[in-house]
């Protein structure tokens, strides 16, 4: 398993991409997950890309964005083409998105059919570029629980559609992450790892809070100090499963927490292999 930092973790910090790459290298990460807006803001500086990142011994594990599936098709495809080009420049074949802006139970059959139709369009395009579309398991989207995610994969039925398995959000849905991982394993191309002190505090990860500079961070805890048991989860990850994982930290003390967590994850993975 290759481990990445997420540049979104530094969204409110005055850190350059050079500083983030140096930090990732120093702490033993293998890559970075590049937030879409960061890739877009670096687009005019041709110095940055896959070759530059490889000079640090790192690779781009994924480009994470929010493709506008509800927008006019021309707008949706233009944005997809832009992200595809940026992903190619940064040397990754994975683009992450969310599916819809409502939970699966609040999405009508007609709305679901339209979203599936749009996903196929995106997957067809990305397949032509040798890339994959990863849908993230996330609340208030069409992949907010395991049954709906499995249904979406079956309905779309496309080899370029994959899953970004967010362990915490699967747990939030009420499903055992280990059980869900085993069912989704053929489709998983990336993991997001984060944790929370208690289920009652999950609201801190709501987009309108977590992306706000003044938002609450109460309940956000290091990976091995929260309600989700990452020791048990990592013990069940197939050591032969070639997949990337990002440590997605939204709280304070970003560097110290990530530095500790990456060592703990590596230690757990080593114990599994013994």
TrEMBL record:
One of its GO terms (molecular function) is isomerase activity. The keyword Isomerase applies. Residues 22-267 form the Xylose isomerase-like TIM barrel domain. It holds the Pfam family AP_endonuc_2. It comes from the Bacteria. Keywords: Isomerase. PANTHER family: HYDROXYPYRUVATE ISOMERASE (PTHR12110), XYLOSE ISOMERASE-LIKE TIM BARREL DOMAIN-CONTAINING PROTEIN (PTHR12110:SF21). This is Sugar phosphate isomerase/epimerase. It comes from Lysinibacillus xylanilyticus.
